Each structure stands twice: as structure tokens, then as C-alpha cells.
Task: structure prediction
Amino acid sequence: MLTTRHSLAELAVVTVGLGGWAMAYEVFQGPTELIQYNPAKASPGYTLFSPFRGRNTYLIDMHGNVVHYWPYPEGWSTPGDEAVEKHARLLEDGTLLRGAIDRAGLGGMGGAIYHLYDWDGDVIWEHVEERPGYTPHHDFRIIWNPKLQARTLLYIASKEITHEQAIALGVDPAKRDDYASRPDGVVEVDMDGNVIWEWNITDHLVQDVNDTLPNYGVVSEHPGKMDPNFADGVSGDWIHINSLDYNETLDHIAINNSTFSEAYVIDHGGTFVPGDPEQSIALAASDAGDFLYRWGNPCVYDAGMCPTSINEGQSSTNGHQQVFFSHDIQWIREREIGMGDNLPGAGNMLIFNNGSRQLGVTFSSVIEFSPYDGPMEKGVYVPEMQAGYDLASPGMGAGQLVSKQIVWSFQSTLPTAFYSRYISGMQRLPNGNTLVCSGANGHLFEVTPEGEVVWEYINPVGDRTGDKYGIHTIMTDAAGERYNSLFKCVRYPSDYAGLAGKDLTPMGKITELWTQEPATPQID
Result:
């Protein structure tokens, strides 16, 4: 389904497919690297990606040629167990921010260490989360903290709690024998590594099980808080925050909870006190740190209808739920440099709907929505149920409820042509196109607002944790969906400040430079 950037009630829905190669790729698989490129319609620039659990980060041009690469730092971790933690970001000053992990040394749970690299690949800065019980994972970014007037690092981190601590938070003891778990949060450190702000979901709970606890209440009356007893309740990987973003204009943070299929906005500026970390952390733990806005699944807080199977299982309804396992919540803006007011849809939000947990046909989609009452700069959010819903147009999902806050979306007419059951992301480009990373399949493609695919690339690097590790010119059905996965990708325009003065001479394709994925490519 594809709509233009207007209210769904104002226009007809245009249904589009991905085009021949795009439809073939996630169904049949085939050649890797550049598949198609339409220079007249694609948004020019350089695309950055890190193969899932790989050792290198690659920067490629529009023709799929490597113009630069950053290898994993030699000697840092156990040989054979080193890996890039999910992805990387190229900053305005030309340095690369990337997570690194030693899966043997850190138990395979995440535990990222964050590095800044110069253009030559040397580590020039490092942050290690040394507090016991904390595990950094998934997403991270360096921001400009407007109150400090300085750069800081934000990252997702889980914090271990015991069974007894979980019971004290109000989880239902009848559901599970052991509630020892790792609830997620967001940590902010200055560039000296000092924790200056922290937010954790355990401080923002409402439950209706134990009326002796201070967080007891009616779940639907507290949309700014989470019910720890929803569905199966607390488990080891509790809410699984897998992405974060920062809006400097609003001083707000967005995070995505794939377990509950929701995205949240929280107030950073209103809970941050310069020079007073203790007060900042206390404010973030108070009601001031509750969700300003949540979107995707109002069933979670008893505000909307839940998905149900009907007609004795012959059909289903998704209720008010809009995403089904989700990733990469973000504001539309230039990726590393503020809001990007010139981008089409600037200030709206994008989310990748994996679709892997919906009833009926499973398919993925990219969704753009506008959560505001008035201009984004006012920072006034309209609750999702208050915004209302329409019925979906004919096609996949016909008759389902669609949020009126959605202003554009993309999916294929053939479900298996675009379906990534986990990871994945997207980015709005300067010409209005959207770059999509169908992560489980290592499939990158650029789509116009009208749904035409104008650039397409397949990651040729096999997953290092499986038996298909290596550089491949052909993908095969036997390889499986994790064969060449990517967490997310980003394209930087040719005039991006971080590329100024850099040597971007094409070196050749990955398949021409590597046979495995060593730290140094085989270049004559």
C-alpha cells in the first residue's frame, strides 16, 4: 500500500510492487551487489552499512563500488569472536562512531563498547560501560546536548534486576516462577565517559495486580506508563528497545519497543539538569520522564482493540494495532545533523514495521506518521486513539483499521517480495525518496514517493556466526534469511560535511576485493 503525504481520508490508496528484481530477491534470491540504478530518479550519495556480526563497515557509491572501509580494530578482542555491534554512523567531522563487541568475552548478550575512528581506521575515542549489571546493545548516537552546549553519547542499555526486585515493581507472581530480567533504558554520558543522565522503563510502570504498591492504578488511565503484566509479562529480555533517536529542536528522545510493537517519545530536555547528574537521573525517573507520546499498539495500555482471530480462524482483525514487531523509529531529518528542515516530511516520524507478529499474511512496510497537534516545533502530541482511524483500502490489509496519523506508507503487493521479520530500517532522502534496509535479507533499495524502486543493492557478505561466512556473488535459497543480514543503513549526500576533502576514489566491488572479510582488503 502506498499513499501520498496527505490524510488517508483525502485520497485514494495507490498500491505498488517493488519491481522485477526487488520482487525476485526476497523470494528467489540471486546475484549480489548492485541490481539496479536509475540516476535520473535516485538520490545521489554514499551508502554506509555494516554486515550483521561482520568485521568491516563499508561506504559504497551509487554503483556499488567501495570508496572507503573501516575494519574492526585488530587485537581488541578474541580472534573469531569480534563483531561490529549492529551498525555505524559517519559524523560531520569525518569520524566514524561504531559499536564493537567481543562475543566470547561478553557472553554474547551485547555489551557493546563504543569507538570513534578517524578516516584511517584508528580508534581515537572509546567508551566502556563498566557498571555491574549494565549491558549496552543495539542503537546509539552522539548528540549535541543544547543545555550543555557539548556533544554527548546516548545509548540503549539493559540493567539486570532480580526476581524479588521485579515482584516489588508489581509484576504478577502467578505468571512466572522467575522474573530475573534485563529491563531496558537509555544512558547519556559526556565525552569523558561520565554518566550525566539515565532513563529506565522500571521507573515508569503502572500495574493493577498489587494494590499495596505505589504504582498500582488503572492501566488505561496512565498512558504515560507501561503495564509490566501485559501479555506474558516480564521475561529475560523484557521490552527489547532496539532503536533510539534524538530531536534536538524538541530535546526529545524516541525509542522503539519491538516486544510490544510500540514507539515512545520521552522528554530529555525537561529532565536534564546541567552539572547535576543525580538530579537529572531523579527527574528522568519521576513522572516527568513518563512517555510524552506512544504509537503503534494501544491494546498494550487497554485503550484500543487487540488483534483477534475470527470466523473460527478463517480470518483475523488487527484491531487498532498498527505495527507488528518494529524497528528504527526516527524523526525525518538529516541523519547526524539536526532536523534537516529541507527534507520532505521533515519532523514527521518513520518506523519500520517488520510485520512478523501480525495475524494472517505477514509482510513488512515502512510507515511515515505525523503525531503532532500543530507544528512539530510546538512539541504537542495527539494521542493515537484521539487521532482516530480509517478503514484500509482494497489490497493486503483491506478492512483493517489504519491510523489517521499515517501520511505515507510503502509495502509490496506480493508479501514475500518485501518481508524482513527482524532488524531493518529506513531513511528519508533529500529528493523525497526513501532508502529502505530490509535487514533480514541484506536487501537495500530506494523507493520514490510513488513506489518506484530506483536503486537496489544486495549485501554480499555472509553472516560470520553461520556456515555461510564469506563473500558471495550469488545468494541461494539454501543460505537462509540470516545469510547476509544488515541491521540498518544510511546514505550521506555527496556534499555531506563528513565527506569533505576525503578520497572517495572507487576501489571496486566487495566481491572483487575480498574472498573472506579480513581487516585489510586485497587491493594491489
Notes: The first helix runs from residue 20 to 28. The longest strand covers residues 134-145.
